[in-house]
Design brief:
- With about 350 residues, this protein is of the alpha/beta class.
- The protein folds into two domains: about 120 residues, Aspartate Aminotransferase, domain 1; about 210 residues, Aspartate Aminotransferase, domain 2.
- The protein is built from ten helices and 13 strands.
- α2 crosses α3, α2 crosses α6 and α8 runs parallel beside α10.
- The radius of gyration is 20 Å and the shape is globular.
Length: about 350
């Protein structure tokens, strides 16, 4: 493949498909959505504007998954991305302008915070984990804290006792917590810990659990009704309602047997083991993921590596520098095992040529 353009952003790869390319790039599940979500298509005829907050049936269904919640605690958004954007813009407009982000981070976090006019403090993760001593020192003067567990890009799940301490600390200090839980159903060991409190904003999506990325259905959950009202007003003057067909299909997804998700998690875990053990055998250093579907091995000159992998080996992977982790490369294992093995073979060739 001819070198045409230096790759400096994930946007170069998004939508870049070719039968010869093996993509460890985008975090897009290759497993299909539940077949039940398509059953309504033959008779669906709802094409009017929808509620800005989101369709009532979907919000009511979601409320059953959260203690003491009701439908008015939710806003249905265009994926988790819009949920994060609306949340940060609302908090910033209310004067809550100092936000603590993890590092490594999901590559959009700093941009969304900056677009909202927020000032960023980074708390450094140690092997993907929060060190409570340094964490509390870093965030004590912040108005908001963002938690992402399981994490993109590391696949690390934060320890229960750490999440409980953060929950208590934030409540005592009056700090808002934005809990990005889009991978909450993709944990290999324990169940998800729901951070709770009057100033906790939960962000979630149907993209990962139900493999419905292109449907663009996410949501915000918060017990603070003033926040829900304020964010709804922003949405009213920007994107208006979220796609109502996507919402109806998401509503159908809420009714499927949870065993479907359980079986999918088994597939993710098997793939995790394949890519982790394969990379260890190649001599790479990395943490073993506890959730989601990412690994972040150390690879020197990561920006150069990503370009070389793509142009010389037809392999897509993301520069760790985009995630605040230069010297690492992020691989998504959201592809079948045979493709993972083929990709590992190409990675082996790359590493062998580098060391020659």
């Amino acid at each position: 493949m001819d070198r045409k353009k230096k790759i400096t952003s994930p946007s170069f790869f998004i939508g870049n498909f070719n039968d010869d390319i093996i993509s460890f790039g985008s975090g897009q599940p290759d497993l299909p959505p539940p077949k039940e979500v398509y059953d309504i298509l033959a008779d669906y005829a709802g094409f009017r504007y929808g509620y800005i907050k989101g369709q009532e049936n979907l919000r009511n269904a979601l409320s059953k998954n959260y203690p003491n919640a009701h439908e008015d605690n939710f806003i249905i958004t265009n994926g988790a991305s819009e949920a994060l954007d609306l949340t940060m813009r609302y908090l910033s407009r209310k004067g809550f302008t100092r936000i603590a982000l993890p590092r490594p981070y999901y590559y959009s976090y700093p941009f969304v915070a900056e677009y909202a006019g927020m000032q960023i403090e980074y708390y450094e993760l140690v092997n993907g984990k929060i060190n409570t001593e340094t964490f509390f020192n870093t965030v004590s003067n912040c108005h908001c804290i963002l938690i992402n567990s399981p994490s993109n890009p590391t696949g690390v799940v934060q320890d229960l006792d750490v999440l409980e301490k953060i929950e208590t600390f934030a409540a005592e200090k009056g700090i808002w917590i934005i809990s990005d839980e889009v991978y909450k159903d993709l944990i290999y060991g324990r169940s998800n810990y729901l951070i709770q409190g009057k100033r906790v904003i939960t962000i979630n999506s149907f993209s990962k659990t139900y493999a419905m990325c292109g449907f663009r259905v996410g949501y915000i959950y918060c017990p603070d009704e003033d926040l829900i009202f304020g964010i709804t007003e922003i949405k009213n003057h920007t994107s208006m309602n979220t796609n109502i067909l996507g919402q109806e299909m998401a509503f159908e997804a809420t009714k499927v047997d949870r065993e479907i998700i359980t079986q999918q998690v088994k597939v993710w875990k098997e793939r995790r083991d394949t890519i982790y053990e394969g990379m260890i055998s190649l001599g790479l250093e990395l943490q073993k993921p506890e959730g989601a579907f990412y690994v972040l091995p150390k690879i020197s000159n990561s920006a150069e590596a990503v370009n070389e992998l793509f142009y010389d080996y037809k392999l897509i992977a993301y520069d760790g520098g985009w995630f605040g982790a230069p010297g690492h490369v992020r691989f998504s294992y959201a592809l079948d095992t045979q493709k993972i093995l083929q990709g590992l073979e190409r990675l082996k060739q790359f590493l062998s040529r580098r060391s020659a």
